[in-house]
Amino acid sequence: MERKKSNLAVALDVTTKQEFLDIADKVGPYICCLKTHVDILEDFDQDLIDKLKKLQKKHDFIIFEDRKFADIGNTVKHQYSKGVYKIAEWADIIDAHAIPGDGIISGLKEIGLPLNRGLLLLAEMSSKGNLATGAYTEATIEMAKRHKDFVIGFISGKKYNSCEELIVMTPGVSLDNSNDDLGQQYKTPGNVIENGSDIIIVGRGIYGKGKDPVVEAQRYRNAGWNAYLEKLEN
Ligand code: 5BU
User: Fold this and answer.
1) At what angle do helices 102-112 and 73-81 cross, to 10 degrees?
2) What distance in Å separates the CA atoms of residue 87 and residue 49, rounded to the nearest whole number?
3) Catalytic residue (choose from 4, 68, 86, 158)
4) Per-residue confidence at 47, pLDDT binned at 50, 70, 90?
5) Domains of the chain
6) How far is the CA of 55 from the centre of ligand 1 (A)?
């Protein structure tokens, strides 16, 4: 983030390899993190991963597979390391729901810790009516504290006083829209950085219909970084 003066993560939710690699190369210079949903790619193959790793080297960003694991420890271990995607081999960070209890972290940790990976817990979500609030969020924070060897932070809209050192990444960020028609709710980069978020996650705001990903990535990078600099001054 410091090297690239960027707290922007792009959520690259496109469904073909070519689009994925094309946009990743275009936005690469402006991002600290590329967030993937690898299971939405229609033509996923090992070549995509090889090319993604090359782009990672070229542009210097971390890869976050937004897999949102949510099962018992034994199952998530396999989902993380095996199957078609072999996520543990290429994703620097992943995320998980706290709903199954501590076992989910223990399972993911068995795979991820030896590979020097990190985990984010979903403490809050951006979507309307979501249930990750109140006591659930509190319990998630406590769970993170019990696994600080592997949990590096949260998906959330704000920083928690009791663990300021854990990173906060925030989806549901847009400069132009306040919602989509499927329950997504947006805040501005300024809003979320002000609340203590460290990294803004932007998807369709960057590559949506009629957008130029380079222009938008620069715009969001500047908005996010300037909000951060402003927060430092206050
Ligand atoms: P958008 O196009 O900027 O709305 O994309 C947001 C991305 O963040 C998308 O990949 C979601 O899966 C992801 N996301 C989210 O929107 N809200 C959440 O609470 C979580 C993830 Br967790």
Assistant:
1) 30
2) 10
3) 68
4) very high
5) 8-233 (3.20.20.70)
6) 22
